[in-house]
Amino acid sequence: MSVHGHGSPDRHPEWRATLDDFQSGDEAMRLCLDLARVAARTELPTLILGETGTGKTLLARALHNSSRRARGPFIAFNSAALSDTLLDSQLFGHERGAFTGADRRVKGKFELADGGTLFLDEIADMSPAAQAKILRAVEYGEFERLGSEQLLDADVRLVTATHLPITRYKETEHFRKDLFYRISGITLRLPALRERPNDLASLMAAEIAAASAQLGKPIVGLSRHAADRLLGYGWPGNLRELKRVIHAAVAIAEGDVIEEAAILLEPEELDAPPAAASRPRAPAAGAADGDLSLRGAERRHIAAVLARFDGNKRRAARALGLARSTLDRKLAES
Ligand SMILES: Nc1ncnc2c1ncn2[C@@H]1O[C@H](COP(=O)(O)OP(=O)(O)OP(=O)(O)O)[C@@H](O)[C@H]1O
Ligand SMILES: [Mg+2]
After folding, report:
1. Is the dihedral of CA 81, 85, 88, 92 positive or negative?
2. Which of 3, 65, 203, 207 to mutate to test the pocket of ligand 1 (most atoms within 8 A of CB)?
3. Cβ–ligand 1 contact at 14 (below 6 Å)
4. Is-above-0.90 flag for pTM?
5. Model confidence at 12, in pLDDT bands (50, 70, 90)?
6. Which domain holds residue 98?
7. 281 vs 173, 274, 298, 301, 302, CA distance in Å?
8. Residue of minimum CA distance from atom 15 in ligand 1
9. What is the CATH number of the domain that holds 36?
10. Closest-CA residue to 246 (of 213, 275, 268, 285)
């Protein structure tokens, strides 16, 4: 699927995507999409897990568009960094005079989503007070606007998302387990881009086509080296990063082929998973074994870098600034 644009809904063609617009040649993604189709046929609250940029928000929209609520509203809400009062009034609305500055009655997201889908993003970051209110709203379907005692109800299908892995999510101290179980009727796990090797080439091609059309460039493809760099990269920022890198490459490209110099990636160190920090490392290049030669230092450094990338020679070679064949030769010599 090709996805681009920003601004109003009309300039967001991907907001109209349904689950049928997603395709994948990778098992984990297919599993996720199959389960999403099941979720779309139900009214079950659905929790979407996935690293940043894996497409959680887009999947939530597609789920809504594929459900029988498709004609109803899709209301997305990200609570991160909102004070409790502001969050309350955003979620549940407020009456005129409910707090300083409340000069008119405002509907909350629950009310606005009536008959449709309410998408609560980064749910793990919500305060305990907000969680209690959300729990009541989803459990009993009732809530009140700030400054009012009148109980309101709304017919809302809840979809939530978080970038936290499920284990971390469950351990999160302040996160209510009862809310967790209430919102995870079905849990969809969006795989990271590095877990979708079979999809990478077609996603790249789709983005090149989209960016070329958008920028009016006659790009027909990638040089061999450019393609190798993109295919060998770890994509810590997932689809969002892929789009950014490819749009930049298309903008920079001078002929009809994208050359390697147009591929601007983050330094490879940044793409190691967070667990790398706690992974045992090989000793840094030092002379603990008494070997003071440059060859010895090089050997130790190569071993340390290999360990850093879990023995992945391709990534180690790139981090070392060596061709893969040169690394193989050096390893054979040592
Ligand atoms: N299947 C896909 N094909 C192409 N582009 C995609 C796909 N899924 C998502 N994208 C694009 O990747 C970017 C990130 O998607 P999205 O915002 O849905 O990710 P997210 O997981 O919600 O990220 P965050 O954790 O930051 O909220 C968007 O530009 C989106 O259009
Ligand atoms: Mg998102």
Report:
1. negative
2. 3
3. yes
4. no
5. confident
6. 9-191
7. 30, 14, 16, 11, 12
8. 55
9. 3.40.50.300
10. 213
